[in-house]
Structures are given as structure tokens and as C-alpha cells.
Specification:
The protein is of the alpha+beta class and 635 residues long. It folds into three domains: 270 residues, Roll (Pnp Oxidase, Chain A); 127 residues, UbiD C-terminal domain-like, CATH 3.40.1670.10; 116 residues, 3-Layer(aba) Sandwich (UbiD C-terminal domain-like), CATH 3.40.1670.10. Helices cover 29% and strands 22% of the residues. It contains 19 helices and 30 strands. The strands form seven sheets. Strands 5, 6, 7, 8, 9, 10, 11, 14 and 19 form a nine-stranded antiparallel β-sheet that branches. Strand 1, helix 2 and strand 2 form a beta-alpha-beta unit. The longest helix is centred in the N-terminal third of the chain and has 15 residues.
Amino acid sequence: MAYRNLGDFINTLEKAGELVRIKEYVNPDLEITEITDRISKIYGPALLFENTGYEFPVLINSMGTEKRMAIALGVEKLDDVAQQIEGLFKTLTGPKNSFMEKLKMLPQLGEIASWMPRQIAGRGECQQVVMENPDITKLPVLKCWPEDGGPFVTLPVIQTLDPLTGIRNIGLYRMQVFGPQLTGMHWHRHKVSARHFNEYKKLGKRMPVSVSIGGDPAYTYSATAPLPDGVDEFMLAGFLRKKRVELVKCLTNELYVPADADFIIEGYIDPEEDYILEGPFGDHTGYYSLADYYPRFHITAITHRKNPVYLATIVGIPPQEDAWIGKATERIFLAPIKMTMVPEIVDMVLPVEGVFHNLVIVKINKDYPGQALKVMNSLWGAGQMMFTKMMIVVDGDVNIHDNLEVARYISTHVDPARDFVFSQGPTDVLDHSCSTMAFGGKMGIDATRKLPEELNGVEDTSVKVNATDIEQVQNALQSFEDIHQVNTKLMQLGIPIVFVTIEKKRRGQVMESAAKIFSDARMTPVKVLIFMESNLDASDIADVVWRFSNNVDPRRDHRVFYSNGNKGHIAFDGTLKTKELDGFTRDWPNILAVDEATCRSIDARWDSFGLGKFIPSPSDKYRSQVYKGGAVVTP
């Protein structure tokens, strides 16, 4: 369904009991983040901050659950969109053997035509008010985390054109505010708009850029979608809302923007100008992305509808709102991947703790040896899947949406010496673990049932763990003075994976310790041993997985060991890496936490926000894990 505007979406959420209006004054500088972080962690409601000290209210966490994400896209559940896409593909690509069958296609083609974006004459609602002197500092732009370089626009739908083809691209890239008419434009080297920018640079021409905020939530989602090059994101938005996007011409450049958006920010980037130092920024990894140089965006006009709402989000330690935007992509793009590229895929999931690009679990129908490896390589070569650091492939009847069930399946069907495969390639720019920026190690785990050709002499990989085994493993690990904490909770569930924490004091310490540990016969039942830092609570498995998936370059940070008749074990170093102890020369980012003073201020005013039962600050948990230094860790 199409929403008339963002206000229509807000009303829909409110009628569904999915929104709370906060009338008490809340500062966009850290305080909105602190409240939203508490609400996001319990999958609470959307929040409309009506008193921000600015003219405009702030809507946040509007897509912060699977239910609200479905409401935003006008469906009962996210899988409905995938089914619609699959049905459309089959209708368009199926054989048409008769004239009548071809005629039956006409209504379908007419519906598709009705989703195409259309330029309309005159001004749109987004241009009802023209700011006389454009000044982005008059918008309630959030400063989210203490070490952020400044306030950032976090949900800008950014439009650029390829100067050679005229093809439009819509992306979502953060914008740091530097002044009334100046922001940064943070697009990574792999993004389409960055490629457009490089073409303008070659031509020596200014690059027009326009930004919309708000409007139908389908616009925001579509800007994040991993579409193939040349496919118009506004066409996807039209498909999702079952109504075309109407576009109006900007006032100061030649671009066209959604007529029903809440705010439009027009401007340009001059390729001849020096870049500006942008960041740090508390990012979706749960760590700061560090300061770097990006293009300057000069604002030439700001317009808005009457009574607009400023749409924002925060990102940080999962879960946050962006997890559900990612969940929508996971469900929506499953059908196209199956139908056009990897037909054996049954299902796919990106666990929240893996922050999108660090971990994916894929379920397949397996028919021949090596098929899991074929699927891994196919996905690593597909669009944004190229950034995936760790990929697990399973088959059979395992429910991949149940993490424990997946872990049990892996523990049953995986031999660490045979079924872990390592490679390298492009990584997300935000991956701080790789030794070279945006290039590092990848790991695939073939957890499928093995066919005779794949056994390599190892037929039974299952491990049966009893109480005595667990006690012996616990005793063995606690006998090593380097080990601080031991978590054998997964072993108690029949899963031979153990987490330990260690305080690193010398080079090579982690793998030296692993070698000694696996030489102890009591460790025979353990397949996987993961080392983490001593400032982490090893009993919190979700946090361990989150920290591990961020901190490990799997190709560099693993080692295979053998014991008891060539039985394989694997150890991973998921600790912070430094130059002194690891030869790691890049800066290591710090973990996100709001300062204690802000947290205590929100504590004292909690009852005035109308949010019900008191929710403790997540930052109180993570503040003890923050290292010395600011956004960059000081060794």
C-alpha cells in the first residue's frame, strides 16, 4: 500500500499501537540516542519526539521491528514481498504457447507500467515551504554517540545521475553537518554514487546531488536495497507501494525528487575541491567508523512540506532499527537470488549479531559433492554479498532461523580440518579486522551432510558430549594461567564449541596457548575454541558472537590442530589486534557507549517520557568494555 506521506505512516503506526509520542523536551545531542537505544534493545515502539528544541519533531525507530517493517512496506509479513516477486518473475519468464496466453499478460504488463516513476509539472508538497536562507542546522540533526565528529543526517535518500548515461541512482549515505550549507557525503568506494562522482571528476563538471528525507517509508527502504546497476530504486518503491512515485523538479538543479517527501536538500559537489575530514561516527558494527576524507556537499536550497517530520535512525551495537531493514532485504531478495543465480538455495538468514556483512547462513538442496562450495563462490561473487566475511552452508531440515539448531547441525556435520575453507577478497570498508582496508580474509563452513566423495577418510564427525567431558574440559582450561573466563554453555547443549577470554601480553600468545590446550587429552571433545578479550563477559554468547565476528579476519586468525588419531580442532583469535602484539598497523576503533552523565539524566526523567517500565541503559553494560582513547583505541 502507498502512504500519502510520512504523517500517514505515523498515523498508521499509532493506530496499530506501535508508536509513542514523547512530549517532554529531549536533546538531539546524545539524549535521543540514549532513549532510542534502550527501546531498540527490547524491540519497543516507534518514537516521535515532539519537543526537540527545534521547529520540527523527530521520528525514530519507525521500522524497528519485523511487524513495523512489514507495515512500512504494506504487507502482513516480509515473506509476502518475496512471494510477489517470485510470482511476477514466473509470469514474465514462463513460456507463452498461444496467442491467448500472451493476451493474458497485458494486465500484468499494465500493472508493471503503473509502478514506473513519473515526473510531474509544478511544485510538490515537499516544496510547500522554501527556506529563504538554506540552513541545515535548523533541522534537529542527531549527534548519536559521544565521539562522533558532529551531528549526522542518518536517513538521507540521496539521488545522483550518471553523467554519461543519465541513469539515476538512489542511495543512503550518512551526511555529517559542518555548517549551515555544508555537509560531508560519505559514500564508500564500492557504491554507485561514488562511481558517478568519479565520472564527473573526469569531465571536470560539478555534480548535482539532491537529498530527500521522509515521505513514504518505501523510499527509505528502496535506497538501501541491493539492486543491480541500472535498476531504478524508485521503480522498486513503486512495486512495493503498488503505486508509482511522483517526482518534481528541484529548484536549483536538474534532479527530480519525490513530491511527497518531508524535506528536500538540494546542492552540488565540486570534484575539484579538496575532500573534508569526516567522522568518526558510531556505526552499525557497534564500533566507531574512523575519520576519513570524503567529498564536500554544498547546499543550495532546502524545502519542506507544511508540518514536516524529521526522519532519523541510530545505528550501534545490535539490535537496532537497521537490523529490520536488513531483515527485509534478506526476505525480499531471497526469491531473485534463487531464480536468477543460485537455484538450490532454500533459505538464507543474516543473524543480527553478524551486522549484515560479517555472517550469513544459507540452506540449500544438496544434490552433488562440492555443491556447498559452489554456493559460497556464487554468493561471494554477487553484488553486496561480496562483503560477506563468514558463510555457513547447511542442508536437510534444519531451521536456520534458530541459532542453536544451526550450531547443533554444524557440530554434527563438520570436521574442522576438512570443512572450513578460507579465501580472501573485498570486505566492507567498516570491517576493522582486516590488515588492509576493504580487503581481507573470508571463511566458508560446509555444514552439509557429506556425500561419499567428500569424506576424505573422515566419516563420523559427530561428537557426543557428556557431563564428565564438560567437567574435564572446564578443568583443563582453568589449569592454563593465561585463560581468564571459560564458557562451556554450548557444550551443555551438545555443541562442542567453547569460548575463553585471555589477556594478551606477548606476541603469538593466543595460538601458543591453543596448541598447548589441544595437546591436553581432556580437550578431545572440543571442535572449536574461540579466544576473546578479558574485558568481555564470556557468558553472554550474543555479545561474544558480535565481538568475534567484528574482530576476526578468519583467514589470518585461525589455526587447525590435530589430536588423538588425527582428530581435527580449530582455534580462532577474536581479540583486539595491535602493532605491538600482532603486527597490526591500522587504527582499531572503540566500542560504542553513551557517557554516564547523559545516561543518568535520562534515568532521572524516565517517568516523564511515557515509555512505561524503566529500562536500564545498554551503555552501562558496554561502558566497561570501552578501551582507553576516544574513537580510536589507545594501546
